[in-house]
């Protein structure tokens, strides 16, 4: 067996927990490598903590500092001197062979530290970060700080200056690979590492699918949504579709909706349901343990992903898509190119025009027939088992880390320190 690598992982939020961070760390540990994770610490958790698949290095919490100063100084800004010192000190002390930065906020600092330590840097582009910032700017209440921390133009500039300089880039969909190539990123440095489920997630979803209760043809079509509740995620469109069917039934089509999750749009969703008097049709459960929800997915007929088709969602794919497919649910998605491509190619569901409740009703009418839903559900499950699962994506991830981390040490000298490249 080759010498194990030490992988430095950069995560701009608290850990635990994040599903993609967990998968990345676990697959690297299973391959025999050691992961040193550096993350934020707003909750005064231990500065260093051992976990089965990694060791966590949290930013020291300054209890003596005023709360606002502590939060501001630990904010994951691409120019943060505090983050730069933490990354440099931690990765030098642990002797990392390769650095992996999750998303864009800390990628410039990871590159600077990588050049200083002469180590290759991979940027995990899990989503279109400028698009995410634009959604936050457009859909959340405005604050003066948004001009810096939620400025789409600034984020776009950072992306265009940073990603072409990375030694490796992970993307979750081919659409993002094509977009980055258009920005000048070498396609040979891009690796597809999608948001596909771990084997144990597949097993949990299969348990739920096997427990599907008997249904009457006259029962309402049961929809489920799993994930964050934000205004840009389109749940208001689903609620409006259910309201329109209540006011004017369409060929006997009736719907119920269960929502598992919370977020900044939670209260406005609750208020919409109350205002439209749809409590008998819609249940908002709030955040629940992920594994428990996976086991319950088999109770439903259709998994919905109604996100608004913004740049944020047009260049990524949601974990929940594969969760629904794993549970043998038919899937209905809005017009986001990656999601539409997957459900169309694998015949796992259908789609509707973005922000159009009437077209959503038409899409749901197409999956109301039980035989059609079963066919779609089986096709989706089969696609996950044979293509969209972590055994494939995890293998590509490990290979890309090993390819960079084990290259000839002499080549590392070509990674000039950041100061020499300026």
In short:
The chain is of the alpha/beta class and 422 residues long.
The share of residues in extended strands comes to 15-25%
Record field, number of beta strands: 14
Q: What number is the mean pLDDT?
A: 91
Relative helix content = 40-55%
Helical stretch tally: 20
**Low-pLDDT sequence parts:** 416-422
What is the SS-derived class? alpha/beta
Top-tier CATH class of the largest domain: Alpha Beta
Sheet having the most strands: 8 strands, mixed
Silhouette:
globular
CATH superfamily of the largest domain: Glycogen Phosphorylase B
Describe this structure in words.
By secondary structure, the protein is an alpha/beta fold. The protein has two domains: 6-196 and 390-411, Rossmann fold, CATH 3.40.50; 199-386, Glycogen Phosphorylase B (Rossmann fold). It has 20 helices and 14 strands. The strands form two sheets. Strands 3-4-2-1-5-6-7-8 form an eight-stranded mixed β-sheet, sandwiched between helices. Helix 10 packs across helix 16. The model is unreliable at 416-422 (pLDDT under 50).
Entry keywords:
Rossmann fold, eight-stranded mixed sheet, 14 strands, 46% helix, disordered C terminus
List the helices and strands and how they pair.
Layout: E1 6-10, H1 19-30, E2 34-39, E3 48-51, E4 54-58, H2 67-73, H3 81-94, E5 98-102, H4 107-117, E6 121-125, H5 129-139, H6 146-149, H7 152-162, E7 168-171, H8 174-182, E8 190-192, H9 199-210, E9 221-226, H10 235-247, E10 255-260, H11 266-275, E11 282-286, H12 290-296, E12 302-305, H13 311-314, H14 319-326, E13 330-334, H15 337-345, E14 349-352, H16 357-366, H17 370-386, H18 390-405, H19 409-412, H20 418-421
């Amino acid at each position: 067996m080759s010498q194990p690598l030490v992988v430095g992982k950069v995560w701009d939020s608290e850990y635990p927990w994040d599903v993609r961070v967990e998968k990345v760390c676990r697959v690297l540990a299973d391959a025999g490598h050691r992961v040193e994770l550096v993350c934020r610490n707003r909750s005064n958790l231990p500065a260093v903590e051992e976990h089965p698949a990694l060791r966590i290095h949290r930013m020291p919490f300054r209890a003596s500092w005023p709360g606002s100063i502590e939060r501001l100084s630990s904010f994951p800004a691409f120019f943060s001197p505090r983050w730069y010192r933490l990354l440099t000190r931690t990765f030098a002390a642990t002797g990392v062979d390769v650095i992996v930065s999750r998303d864009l906020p800390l990628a410039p600092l990871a590159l600077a530290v990588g050049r200083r330590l002469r180590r290759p840097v991979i940027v995990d582009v899990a989503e279109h970060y400028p698009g995410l910032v634009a959604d936050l700017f457009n859909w959340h209440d405005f604050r003066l700080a948004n001009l810096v921390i939620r400025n789409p133009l600034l984020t776009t500039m950072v992306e265009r200056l940073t990603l072409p300089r990375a030694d490796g880039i992970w993307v979750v969909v081919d659409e993002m690979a094509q977009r980055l190539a258009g920005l000048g990123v070498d396609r040979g440095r891009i690796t597809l590492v999608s948001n596909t489920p771990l084997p144990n997630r597949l097993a949990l979803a299969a348990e739920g699918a096997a427990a599907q209760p008997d249904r009457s043809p006259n029962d309402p079509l049961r929809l489920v949504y799993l994930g964050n509740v934000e205004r840009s995620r389109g749940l208001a469109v689903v609620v409006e579709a259910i309201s329109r069917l209540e006011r004017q039934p369409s060929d006997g089509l009736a719907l119920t909706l269960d929502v598992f999750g919370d977020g900044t749009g939670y209260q406005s969703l609750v208020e919409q349901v109350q205002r439209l008097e749809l409590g008998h049709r819609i249940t908002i459960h709030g955040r629940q343990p992920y594994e428990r929800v996976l086991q319950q997915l088999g109770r439903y007929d259709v998994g919905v992903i109604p996100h608004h088709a913004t740049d944020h969602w047009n260049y990524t794919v949601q974990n929940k898509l594969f969760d629904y497919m794993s549970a043998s649910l038919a899937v209905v998605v809005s017009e986001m190119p990656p999601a539409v491509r997957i459900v169309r190619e694998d015949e796992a569901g259908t789609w509707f025009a973005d922000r159009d409740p009437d077209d959503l009703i038409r899409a749901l009418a197409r999956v109301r027939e039980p035989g059609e839903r079963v066919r779609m559900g089986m096709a989706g499950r089969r696609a996950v088992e044979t293509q969209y699962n972590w055994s494939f994506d995890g293998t590509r991830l490990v290979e890309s880390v090993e390819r960079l981390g084990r290259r000839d040490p002499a080549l590392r000298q070509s990674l000039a320190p950041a100061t020499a490249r300026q």
